[in-house]
DNA sequence: GTCAAATCACGTCAAAATCACGTCAAGAAG
DNA sequence: CTTCTTGACGTGATTTTGACGTGATTTGAC
């Protein structure tokens, strides 16, 4: 089991990580929302432990954003906010469980196990004629499956999660080549390949280039 | 949504039922374990609210029995027993959530909604011609038992639990070698062995490779 | 201000390099 | 003995690279 711990209190974090590892649970660690974002979108966790008071923003917002963007991993909120309204806000933005500080480690582990083993049924995201299944890593257009390469899927799913926002070129490149951006501009080729599969065979085009900015995936105005 | 409320305090029960119905949640009612048993085995509930102190026995035992007998409805325990050990016992026997009395109705509803949407972790599972017995660590295909190695079982059961999701290669490897991922790619060999037993002797193939992503086990489109 | 040249961002394509995977067999570990 | 690991090989898919064309945008001299 692999969990992501998002917690800015380093001492507490260290204790949690240590305890989880004793219990055979592997643990990635983020101490800010920014760090958490890049972790969440780069791999799938069996669960995310989310503190709500973070230096660079509110955990509630982050959780809502993740759920809106079809992040599958279940989220357990870990916080000192103990009011009923606080809890309800947590569940409102998609939390799978809510544990109040101070808490007992064994209870955290018990709840982690429950939410990790019983995942929510995968939801499908529809954008026009496109239908995304993030859990199955598949896309369909008008019922037909689009056979994408690994890179093609990565690009398209990022754009879908952000749709109809425009995603900056650089961000797409960071997703594809996290270590070092390529000297040449091979993203162009990938977009070409992607378009050939996603848009070319169909009437309407969903992949758009915003010159000088980046890329976006959205329903064409004329179609809507 | 249909829930089963198991609670011997009639006044509290009436309040809960009333509140749930306000929220559009249908509610069956049992005031003893005996009544609960007959309800649980006669229909499938989206969730079961289970009080632990009942006139004819302990809720913990009932819960354990249900889970042992593959009742898939999630159970939320509702009790005055607030000790850590009580909670752990609850999760131990398969509870999906644990709420301490006194509680706020809106929180109960929020938690009900979360657990009702989750996919259950069954002990028996059928996927096409395959039949899994997770407790007994056995698989049958068309009635014949498949004799798997320890590793083979681990891989296949993970894929089955997640079916029809695609499980990332890395996650399968983490399951097999929790400590350190192997330098060489021996998962390929295991898949080869596994396919020889699971798929090769039969017409339809269930094990699929999603190139660049991972593996999945599912009923082929053409078969359905 | 305006016009043309230079520059830039992008689409297109194909060849080459690389990678992921299925297959198998021999050896190691239990 | 069975099971697991390793490594080698072949194949086809994927990714990268670089070259070329086009139209937009900037630049700078007039």
From TrEMBL, chains A, B:
GO terms for cellular component: cytosol; protein-DNA complex. Keywords: DNA-binding, Phosphoprotein, Transcription, Transcription regulation, Two-component regulatory system. It comes from the Bacteria. Pfam families: Response_reg, Trans_reg_C. Residues 122-219 bind DNA. InterPro entries: CheY-like_superfamily, OmpR/PhoB-type_DNA-bd, Sig_transdc_resp-reg_C-effctor, Sig_transdc_resp-reg_receiver, WalR-like, WH-like_DNA-bd_sf. SUPFAM superfamilies: C-terminal effector domain of the bipartite response regulators (SSF46894), CheY-like (SSF52172). The modification 4-aspartylphosphate is found at residue 51. GO terms for biological process: regulation of DNA-templated transcription. The keyword Secreted does not apply. Residues 122-219 form the OmpR/PhoB-type domain. GO terms for molecular function: phosphorelay response regulator activity; transcription cis-regulatory region binding. Residues 2-116 form the Response regulatory domain. Transmembrane segments: none annotated. This is DNA-binding response regulator. The lineage of its organism: Bacteria, Pseudomonadati, Pseudomonadota, Gammaproteobacteria, Alteromonadales.
């Amino acid at each position: 089991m692999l969990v992501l711990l998002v917690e800015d209190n380093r001492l507490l974090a260290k204790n949690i990580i240590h305890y989880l590892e004793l219990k055979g649970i592997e643990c990635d660690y983020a101490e800010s929302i920014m760090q958490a974002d890049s972790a969440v979108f780069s791999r799938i966790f069996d669960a995310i432990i989310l503190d709500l008071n973070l230096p660079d923003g509110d955990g509630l917002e982050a959780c809502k954003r993740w759920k809106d963007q079809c992040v599958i991993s279940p989220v357990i909120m870990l916080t000192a906010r103990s009011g009923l309204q606080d809890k309800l806000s947590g569940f409102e933005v998609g939390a799978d469980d809510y544990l109040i500080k101070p808490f007992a480690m064994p209870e955290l582990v018990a709840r982690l196990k429950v939410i990790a083993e019983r995942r929510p049924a995968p939801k499908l995201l529809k954008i026009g004629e496109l239908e995304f299944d993030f859990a199955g890593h598949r896309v369909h257009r008008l019922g037909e499956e689009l056979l994408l390469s690994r890179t093609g899927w990565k690009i398209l799913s990022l754009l879908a999660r952000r749709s109809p926002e425009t995603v900056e070129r650089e961000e797409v490149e960071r997703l594809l080549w996290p270590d070092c951006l390529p000297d040449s501009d091979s993203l162009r080729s990938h977009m070409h390949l992607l378009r050939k599969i996603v848009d070319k065979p169909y009437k309407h085009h969903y992949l758009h280039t915003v010159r000088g900015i980046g890329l976006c995936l959205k329903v064409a105005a004329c179609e809507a």
